[in-house]
Amino acid sequence: MELARRVGVYGVLRDAGRVLVVREGREPEVWSLPGGLVAHAEHPERAVVRAVSGQTGSTVAVGRLLAVVADVTVLAQEDISLHTDRLLFEVAARGGASGSAGGGEVETLWVTPEEAARLPLTPFSAELLGLPVTPLPAGTHRSAEPIPPPHPDRRLRFGAYGLVTDPAGRILLTQIADGYPGAGKWHLPGGGTDHGEQPTTGLLRELVEEGGQLGRVVELLGVDNLHNPAALGPEGRPLDWHGVRVIYRVLVDVPTDAVVTESAGGSTARAGWFTRAQAADLPLTGIAASAIGQRGR
Predict the structure, then answer these.
(1) How would residue 102 be classed by pLDDT, with cut points 50, 70 and 90?
(2) 237: Cβ–Cβ under 8 A, 6 or more apart, which residues?
């Protein structure tokens, strides 16, 4: 079975205690939060504005990143196991929410939480809204958008990273090993998530592998987008690389000496705990500098 991945973005548009849901003109009837897929190289924040505005007819502004979840759907006819990382943003309509469809076969509906709970919602929409998740009838687990064949020169990587601190306020950073992009720079712990893995699960796994620490996720901070159209891929030739990276605040309650435990040949050379003053003197990756509150170098 082929493994495929994609990233979806969705918006919570509220008005007077109600939330807007949409239904595409397909049978059977299934409702969802408005949104769609992130295009290659597109920043998720721009993608959610485009997708929600297109489906609802309201020009929206993006707010906070509220939640991130992942799910896997088996598309039996295509023999594909499809992993989708889904980002939920708070959005606000400019000039007031209209909720009128932006064309095509999209129906919109304003519902209270109680009304939403009685609708046939996509499981991820129910989960993101904090409602009970009810499995949909057989035959409804279809992809709303066709799954294109893998592009020979493009790569999508979804990762989860942590601004990891201990009770003393020190920050855990990892140094990128030779032979990898950004070699020698200090980076946030984290990395790409595995097929079928939730972002927080992947981050805590990476924290053990890269720093030897047990942590707990306490807050979702935001999302970072990386596009390198000429990255050197594992095949030794340039690839058009697109990375979507969510960032969490992580606390290590009982810190230990930072030790890299992943197998030899990994992308992490070493790890260390640093005060904010010490971190300011390190060569940092852009995502690390941004998360710590400094300007990128």
Answers:
(1) very low
(2) none
Residue 264: per-residue pLDDT: 47
Q: Find the length of the chain.
A: 297
Each residue's pLDDT tens digit, 190-225: 999 999 999 999 999 999 999 999 999 999 999 999
Would strands 238-251 and 268-274 be described as parallel, antiparallel, or unpaired? unpaired
Instruction: Tell me if 185 sits within 8 A of 176, measured CB to CB.
Output: yes
Do residues 198 and 206 make contact, with C-beta atoms less than 8 angstroms apart? no
CA distance 52 to 65: 15
Structure pTM? 0.90
As a whole number of angstroms, the distance between CA 201 and CA 108 comes to 34
